[in-house]
User: What shape does this take?
Amino acid sequence: MEQNDEIQSIQRMAYTIGSNVSRVIIGKDEVIQLLVVALLCEGHVLFEDVPGIGKTTMAKALARSLGCSFQRIQFTPDLLPSDITGITFYNQKKGEFEFRPGPLLSQIVLADEINRATPRTQSALLEAMEERQISIERNSMPLPRPFMVVATQNPVELEGTFPLPEAQLDRFLMRLRLDYPDKDEERQILRRFKEEQPLQELKPVIDAEQLTRLQQAIRKIHVSSGIENYIVELVHATRDHSEVELGVSPRGTLALYRASQAMAAIEGRGYVIPDDVKRLAPNVLAHRLIATSQSRLHGRDMDQVIVDILHSTAVPVEQ
Assistant: This one.
């Protein structure tokens, strides 16, 4: 009974956050749900799409829906690690050294145009994402919980950018795309933003303590041995695929496992089914693959490779 209550709480929370964000972002219910899945898993999200379709607005709408501290970082080539982690300076009035925290010491961090920062600055963000801490002058400082990085990047404009290293891409639980709205959705956008700015009117619908409690409840969702084997088979298939030079890491295996638990809870179930895994696999696994030179030459999409693997891998059947 206790688990059922927790699942119902997760369902209500997911619906409430989704509805709140939908007041600003129109026609992207699937993406919003995946964003909530990542939030419940304490995972980070990379939005990769063309400019002007709402990536930054989506991240801001999520942050405003949560009663959590929020900071936005505009990544540029001259951004230094200390600009995001903080600095220690000498306060002449007090006659002592003080620490001035950077924007990373927040619960929700929007890393806008992340691929415009230099590798040195990206490495500082890498530590925060994986270790949930920052290092300043040989001292480590834990980050507040919950902690989530929502990053954006433009895959089309390459001038003045620094491609994210594979190690950092692997730290993102999901890679999401918004895509262009259809004609009806675009008309709705024009009408909704005609006289008001919905983003400014959003209010928090959940606080950090509630969110942390639900994140812990996700781990209790049952995953059968058949589902576990299914996830492992999918991951190993990426490592043996002829078009893939480097397959999914064990971190990716765990990411798909956790995301499937969160999706099951959002759907009102206390157990994971194969459809949860199949639905999440492209967003959780594709960005972790490194294509062979031959695949890149032919413009092969790693998302399609994951789809092919899903079609060729046997789905577990309930005993």
